[in-house]
Amino acid sequence: MNYDEAKTKFVSTWGSLGTLWGINKAMAQIQALLFISIKPLCMEDIMEELKISRGNTSMNLRQLMDWGIVTKVIIPGERKEYFTTEKEVQELARVIAKERSRREIKPVVKVLKEVSSIADDGTEKTKELIKQTKALHDLTETADDMINKLVNQKQNWVTKSLLKLIK
Amino acid sequence: MNYDEAKTKFVSTWGSLGTLWGINKAMAQIQALLFISIKPLCMEDIMEELKISRGNTSMNLRQLMDWGIVTKVIIPGERKEYFTTEKEVQELARVIAKERSRREIKPVVKVLKEVSSIADDGTEKTKELIKQTKALHDLTETADDMINKLVNQKQNWVTKSLLKLIK
DNA sequence: TCAAACTTTCAATAATTATTGAAAGTTTGT
DNA sequence: ACAAACTTTCAATAATTATTGAAAGTTTGA
């Protein structure tokens, strides 16, 4: 496998993993492309490499910037804008996890709390609903906390030592 | 909020969370419904509660059974089939994480390993590709390992004490 | 072995989500 | 103030994914 093959393989695989953290293919691919690029890229570069339209590129770059993963770079003497991505995987993971938690997990935890707090009218079905949603609430909240805490540890040794602990 | 409101809210919220673990809405809703039901339900019950078609119900039940989350229950004297879901949240989380890892994370880890193992031809761009995909490989693999290990600990105290550790 | 009771399959359709491309908007140098 | 160089917006369209419903399949009891 040569450089170009490896690059294409990486970009498309990382793109398809997008769903795993709730972003679309193009967005994930743009990030992947920037992630392995040795210099900032402009819109043309990205459009050409990924064969996507200008509008698509613009919209997805915007979202990546909103997330704080991609930043605009101004190159003196150049009119057009260039882009780079966060190069530290640890930091990348932090941002993604944080965003995911905020957008998707937190609202669910909130609903679970509400539902598990309804008045116990004494019927078996209500008891079951309360019991099960409470269990789900605890699990979800704990998992969310853990992910956030883990991912906020910037030093990699924490992850490694934890992993050893639970082996 | 009374029982029926709470139930509807829970089922639809849990359904929309489906994307988070890579299953579709109907599948997540069926599971949610069974999760708070005090007795096994048949296809009619599910169709009626969720207002979905017979075909949809059948296909999604099948997939839930393939995942090992839902099991068929035979009620003596009854012709039709009944279904229940795993009621332990811990076990539920285990199955979901395992499935997700197998279907989505493992293949990506494999590709990252391949890509990061290409020959270093000495160019800067190749070095960068290798370096970055290697970092991603390590992170992804570590995260995957952690999730699997954590989720395999059936006792809840492990999670709790770990959480304390990293607070 | 038949028919009633039930489940599965799958082509057609609907719903959702991503992408395009061209017009409108913005910025910059002269 | 203008025009060139660039970016953004968004309605239209395409691609993808989920859902339906009816026909085919299966099981069971008499």
Which sheet architecture does the biggest sheet of chain A show? 3 strands, antiparallel
Question: Can you count the helices of chain A?
Answer: 7
Report the count of strand segments of chain A: 3
- Could you name the CATH class of the largest domain in chain A? Mainly Alpha
Overall average pLDDT of chain A? 89
Record the strand order, biggest sheet of chain A.
Answer: 1-3-2
Radius of gyration of chain A: 21 Å
End-to-end gap of chain A: 35 Å
The low-pLDDT segments of chain A are: none
Greatest interface and its participating residue counts: A-B, 58 and 58 residues
CATH architecture of the largest domain in chain A: Orthogonal Bundle
CATH H-level homologous superfamily name of the largest domain in chain A: Winged helix-like DNA-binding domain superfamily/Winged helix DNA-binding domain
| Amount of helix of chain A | 55-70%
Name the helix and strand elements of chain A from N-terminus to C-terminus, one letter apiece.
HHEHHEEHHH
CATH topology title of the largest domain in chain A: Arc Repressor Mutant, subunit A
Question: How would you characterize the overall build of this protein?
Answer:
Two copies of one chain form a homodimer. The first copy, chain A, has 167 residues and is mostly helical. Chain A has two domains: 3-85, Winged helix-like DNA-binding domain superfamily/Winged helix DNA-binding domain (Arc Repressor Mutant, subunit A), CATH 1.10.10; 89-165. Helix content of chain A is 68%, strand content 6%. The first copy, chain A, is built from seven helices and three strands. A three-stranded antiparallel beta sheet of chain A has the order 1-3-2. The longest helix of chain A has 29 residues, at 124-152. Chain A is elongated. The two termini of chain A are 35 Å apart. Chains A and B meet through α1, α5, α6 and α7 of A and α1, α5, α6 and α7 of B. Chain A binds a DNA duplex (30 and 30 nucleotides) through residues 24-26, 43, 52-56, 58-59, 62, 79-81. Chains A, B: Belongs to the GbsR family.
